[in-house]
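Regression test attached.
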Amino acid sequence: MKVSKCDPRLAKSLIEQYGGADGELAAALRYLNQRFTIPDKIIGLLTDIGTEEFAHLEMIATMVYKLTKDATVEQMEVAGLGGHLADHGFDLYYHNAAGNPFTVTYVTAKGDPIANLYEDIAAEEKARATYQWLIDMTDDVDIQDGLRFLREREVIHAIRFREAVELLKGFQEEKKVF
Amino acid sequence: MSSVMPKEYYRVLEELQTVDFVLLELSLYLDTHPDDPHSLAQVQQFHLRRQGLVQQFETHFGPLLEYAHSPTTAGWPWAETPWPWQV
């Protein structure tokens, strides 16, 4: 991940994708948890996308780390990260841009494959929207490159989940024959 | 900590990441289109290319994974390589 300047202000917003409701941690936990009860045809997709989200989590963490590692205490405070500094110093922490700690209530499991997959599609679309806001917030072209990549991944994941819904509909219709 | 690695490190790693990305995309596509012969052929092709790149990278810069590709007989280089956020 290339980051061309120290920018704790952007880090404060970017942390949304680390420990926020539509962030990468929530995504990974949501998909990997749904795998166990989803019809067999969809397990591979949830496994692969869930795992990819953990890689994205490391990418976001790398960006946040590089954006803040050379910042002074004063720069962190000016960026609105004084509260973060008091509790965590320069460590990363799973919270959203507003500082609320990660909660597992960001993740749903409804015991219904279609409901779960629609939830997953919505999560991808919300994450895509967040990435767009973040891209608009910075003029660092290196960071923008990374964020555009992640935004595109949300698009692809949403497409794959939509296809999974179609596979599932076919599967449900098949079952009615018996 | 941050390290500046030799040019070759970034070049091979970027090529590996590119090939990995192709394989990841093909995997997700095949998860919902498992019978597509064109994608299956591409997986074969890129998998071979990946093996060469992994070998090239690991020979010079140490293991990419904790245990997967090539077992070490001397030392434990896994914990010595610079991590992704340090390069």
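Expected vs. actual: identical. Residues 14 and 134 of chain A are 7 Å apart (CA to CA).
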